[in-house]
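User: Sequence in, structure out. Go.
Assistant: Echoing your sequence, followed by the structure tokens.
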Amino acid sequence: CTSAGLQGPTWTCGWTAEEEEGEDPLDARIARSGCLEQHRQLQECMAERRDWRHCQEQVRAFGACMAQQQRQRGTGPAQPPD
């Protein structure tokens, strides 16, 4: 399953780097991120609803997971001091 529309983000169904030859680097990063389940749920919503605006819960969950992973790895934006 793939979508490359102008009205929303591009998404694919590749789950791991081993599953698809020549996989997109972004898909590989998601697979390594620990956010694969949130990504899968977002993709399922997109496949069903065909409009990312109807998948805001999944968009937020995936974004929060990726942001947390970046903070843990020290690659995300700096956090303001308390």
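User: And one key feature?
Assistant: The longest strand covers residues 2-3.
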